[in-house]
Specification:
This protein has seven helices and six strands. The protein is of the alpha/beta class. It has one domain. The strands form two sheets. A four-stranded mixed sheet has the order 1-2-4-3, covered by helices on one side. A two-stranded antiparallel sheet has the order 5-6. A hairpin with a 2-residue loop joins β5 and β6. The protein is globular and about 45 Å long. The model has no long low-confidence stretch (mean pLDDT about 90).
């Protein structure tokens, strides 16, 4: 673990696996933090507010993690999720941080406004985060998380429909993997 990363012991193994797919984030300050309530989601990545006024290289981030989620009418602790699924969720959030790292402070403020005010903006942001995760070799985890959410968890229809609408589908992810693998194969010739 990098000194830049603050990770609760309950999810340290999963967070370190997810971080291992993002070597570019090795020296980026990231705090993984459990939170009692997060509206409409299980996890949420965001820049540290005070660091918005620093240069991109000095910016810090946090990933907020809902302490509990309701699965099939049962309240479950997020830290007790199956390892592969938790890694996928964290990998998606790290994809957001990759997206944030490339933005100026003004652009990040605009991102926040767009995210709060436009469903189309949210959709583009969530699909970018999934794309970062897939391009960093996390498709196994992202697909496991999607299968869990869409088919196995017994989550509310409203939540499942939101995921289907805003995020990459399993089919789109597999298409991205095929394209990535084909490009890598051609590049290695």
């Amino acid at each position: 673990m990098s000194a830049q990363h603050q990770i609760p012991p309950a999810i340290e193994e999963e967070a370190l696996i997810a971080l291992s797919h993002y070597p570019e984030l090795k020296n980026t300050p990231i705090e993984f933090k459990f939170k009692k309530n997060i509206k409409k989601s299980t996890m949420q990545a965001q820049p540290e507010f005070a660091s918005l006024f620093k240069g991109r290289k000095n910016r810090g981030y946090k990933i907020l993690i809902a302490e509990q989620i309701t699965i099939a009418d049962t309240l479950c602790y997020t830290r007790d999720m199956p390892t592969e699924i938790l890694i996928g969720w964290l990998g998606h959030e790290l994809g957001h941080i990759m997206d944030f790292k490339n933005r100026s402070s003004i652009d990040l403020i605009g991102f926040g406004i767009g995210y709060l005010s436009s469903k189309k903006y949210i959709r583009n942001a969530e699909r970018r985060a999934d794309s970062f995760a897939v391009s960093h070799g996390m498709e196994k985890y992202i697909l496991a998380t999607k299968a869990f959410i869409l088919e196995k968890a017994g989550l509310s229809k409203k939540y499942v429909d939101r995921i289907k609408d805003l995020y990459l589908s399993p089919e789109e992810i597999m298409q991205m993997v095929e394209e990535r693998d084909m490009t890598e194969a051609l590049d290695s010739k």
